[in-house]
Amino acid sequence: MSPISPRIFFDVDGVLADFASYYLKLLKEHSGRDHTPEDITCWDFNKCVTNPAEDSAVWEMISKRGGIHELSEYPYMEVVTKLRNLGYKVRALTSPAWACHRWVPERTLWLNGKGFTTKEIVYCSDKAAIWGDVLVEDSWENLMSWCSAHQASTGFLVDRPWNRNSLPWNAVRVHTPDQLLESIQRVVGHE
């Protein structure tokens, strides 16, 4: 852990923003099929709730009308606020969706509206390339890669139906915002 201020990163989709419900709403408009986030049992939507043609159609819908600003906020946003109130700097670490030309500007506006400055938002497809003391993530694959690259750091996996795999030694599965806050405070040494 860094001696000055811990570098704490939060993934956005699946942790702070409910992209899955928005995606499924658009999928229902396109196909008529109704799904819930619990139906998403794998990270790749094409393998568990849709197919490549439908996925392309949904991304086309997102690209044409935007809507990232419509995403609901998960309760884990409260953890960001509480950590900031304790004096910690918290950053968003999110993958850009290149299939949608509006993604980065709309995502930036959404995060700005949640209290993140533009300088606190990092877009990177390979999250393992970004060093930090803490990463809160919902993608098992991203967390595994990040934890492997940063052995002295701690990853937190927000429990979701699509990430029920086992974790590396330097990662913790969390089920509630309170559990996450307490765990991060232990890791960064807050009393």
Q: Please, what is the oligomeric state? A: single chain
CATH topology of the largest domain: Rossmann fold
What number of domains?
2
Structural class, by secondary structure, is alpha/beta
- Structure summary, number of beta strands: 8
Largest sheet: 6 strands, parallel
CATH homologous superfamily designation of the largest domain: HAD superfamily/HAD-like
Please count the helical segments.
Answer: 7
CATH architecture of the largest domain: 3-Layer(aba) Sandwich
Q: In percent, how helical is the residue content?
A: 25-40%
Which band does the percent of strand residues land in? 5-15%
Principal-axes geometry comes out as globular
Concise summary:
By secondary structure, the protein is an alpha/beta fold. The chain has helices at 19-31, 45-48, 52-65, 77-85, 103-113, 140-149, 177-188; strands spanning 8-10, 17-18, 72-73, 90-94, 121-123, 134-137, 154-158, 171-174.
Write the layout of secondary structure elements.
Elements: E1 8-10, E2 17-18, H1 19-31, H2 45-48, H3 52-65, E3 72-73, H4 77-85, E4 90-94, H5 103-113, E5 121-123, E6 134-137, H6 140-149, E7 154-158, E8 171-174, H7 177-188
Parallel strand pairs: 1-4, 1-6, 4-5, 6-7, 7-8
Antiparallel strand pairs: 2-3
